[in-house]
């Protein structure tokens, strides 16, 4: 079946994507189908004895700031998804997604010419926050015009973010549209990444995204302690009284 | 004058070795690939396979890419697997062209790169297909 084939190519974790497009009539976010219902037993990862992990992922196609309200509401089914991605269509939404929205991935459009240019401030803020930019490679397999758009959009993204925080993923609908991890890392070289960045785009950054999703689901606050410096008080005490008055004045 | 005198070290004979630094590695890279054609149509022959590889290079990298010296060393029509040889500087171009190939004569297909190595001998053993009893 489809998933057995996927895993024979060499992946150990897969995320199933549900796309919600707000332009159409009222869409409701349904609970993701749990993997146990889809297939009874998951195949093993090639070469190890662990089973595949199947995660669920939600992609929101936003073209209006009011669509982002869904992310702030806590009663929707959105918290059942492991990874949340947003697909901004305008520059303002891209800025909002990078700076304030609580998502794990920002999808970069590869099927058409970008309507806006990337600017450095929101991209740097997204990198600091731990948000990753996602590029798709399956449209490039289907059509040659898409190939050009994919490569040109990817190169313009690389120039701004210098290869950090990139994730390359497939939007495959058929098993034949999937490519092995090393093939995808090679595509990263085409987009202008360095070799280590390209391999990280398929392995390390993806794992960081799943961890980011887990922390988003679980963490409510962080407590940390800071050691207070004590040396300053002792130095003041040794100064004689007349000198102390002069320094304070 | 320094106390203790200065002792000259004994004269060292001139070195008789020569150091050569090779940074480019091997000249050619070898790839073992398999073409997946799920529909049970006619299988390509060797010439058609080579033409498919060259056309994939042309689609992605243009005429300069299509002019890349690629050789098909072996080809098995039954399993559609082949060993390709390419100049090391052209490995990224060839590999990306094979990855992004989607259609062969309007039939959906996919290239799976099984092994790649700068040495041909390394392609003979594949640890991924190792079966441990």
From TrEMBL, chain A:
Keywords: Acetylation, Nucleus, Phosphoprotein, rRNA processing, tRNA processing. InterPro entries: Pol/histidinol_Pase-like (IPR016195), RNase_P_p30 (IPR002738). The keyword Acetylation applies. One of its GO terms (molecular function) is RNA binding. GO terms for cellular component: nucleolar ribonuclease P complex. Component of nuclear RNase P and RNase MRP ribonucleoproteins. RNase P consists of a catalytic RNA moiety and about 10 protein subunits; POP1, POP4, POP5, POP7, RPP14, RPP21, RPP25, RPP30, RPP38 and RPP40. Within the RNase P complex, POP1, POP7 and RPP25 form the 'finger' subcomplex, POP5, RPP14, RPP40 and homodimeric RPP30 form the 'palm' subcomplex, and RPP21, POP4 and RPP38 form the 'wrist' subcomplex. All subunits of the RNase P complex interact with the catalytic RNA. Several subunits of RNase P are also part of the RNase MRP complex. Component of ribonuclease P, a ribonucleoprotein complex that generates mature tRNA molecules by cleaving their 5'-ends. Also a component of the MRP ribonuclease complex, which cleaves pre-rRNA sequences. Belongs to the eukaryotic/archaeal RNase P protein component 3 family. This is Ribonuclease P protein subunit p30. It comes from Rostratula benghalensis. The gene is Rpp30.
Automatic annotation (TrEMBL), chain B:
InterPro entries: Pop5/Rpp14/Rnp2-like, Rnp2-like_sf. GO terms for molecular function: ribonuclease P RNA binding. GO terms for biological process: tRNA 5'-leader removal. One of its GO terms (cellular component) is nucleolus. Gene3D superfamilies: Ribonuclease P, Pop5 subunit. This is RPP14 protein. Keywords: tRNA processing. Pfam families: RNase_P_Rpp14. It comes from Rostratula benghalensis (greater painted-snipe). Belongs to the eukaryotic/archaeal RNase P protein component 2 family. SUPFAM superfamilies: Rnp2-like.
């Amino acid at each position: 079946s489809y998933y057995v084939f996927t895993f024979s190519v060499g992946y150990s974790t897969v995320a199933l994507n549900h796309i919600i497009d707000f332009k159409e009539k009222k869409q409701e976010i349904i609970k993701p189908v749990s993997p146990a219902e889809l297939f009874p037993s998951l195949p093993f990862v090639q070469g190890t004895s662990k089973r595949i992990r199947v995660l669920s992922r939600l992609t929101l196609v936003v073209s209006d700031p009011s669509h982002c309200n869904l992310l702030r509401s806590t009663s929707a089914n959105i918290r059942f998804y492991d990874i949340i991605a947003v697909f901004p269509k305008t520059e303002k939404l891209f800025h909002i997604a990078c700076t304030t929205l609580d998502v794990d991935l920002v999808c970069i459009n590869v099927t058409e010419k970008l309507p806006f240019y990337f600017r450095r401030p929101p991209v740097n803020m997204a990198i600091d926050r731990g948000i990753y930019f996602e590029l798709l490679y399956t449209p490039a397999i289907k059509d040659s015009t898409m190939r050009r758009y994919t490569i040109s959009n990817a190169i313009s993204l690389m120039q701004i973010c210098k290869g950090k925080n990139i994730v390359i993923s497939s939007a495959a609908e058929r098993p034949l549209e999937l490519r092995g991890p090393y093939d995808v890392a090679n595509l990263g070289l085409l987009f202008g990444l360095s070799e280590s960045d390209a391999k990280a785009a398929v392995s390390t950054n993806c794992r960081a995204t799943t961890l980011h999703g887990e922390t988003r689901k679980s963490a409510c606050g962080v407590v940390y302690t800071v050691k207070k410096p004590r040396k300053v008080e002792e130095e003041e005490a040794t100064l004689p009284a007349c000198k102390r008055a002069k320094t304070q004045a | 004058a320094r106390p203790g005198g200065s002792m000259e070290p004994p004269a060292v004979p001139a070195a008789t070795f020569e150091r050569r630094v090779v940074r480019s590695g091997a000249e050619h890279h070898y790839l073992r690939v398999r073409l997946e054609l799920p529909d049970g149509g006619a299988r390509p022959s060797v010439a058609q396979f080579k033409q498919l590889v060259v056309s994939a290079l042309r689609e992605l990298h243009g005429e300069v890419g299509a002019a890349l010296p690629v050789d098909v060393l072996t080809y098995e029509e039954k399993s559609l697997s082949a060993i390709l040889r390419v100049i090391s500087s052209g490995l990224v171009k060839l590999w990306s062209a094979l990855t992004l190939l989607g259609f062969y004569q309007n039939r959906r297909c996919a290239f799976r790169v099984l092994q790649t190595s700068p040495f041909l001998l390394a392609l003979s053993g594949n640890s991924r297909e190792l079966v441990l009893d």
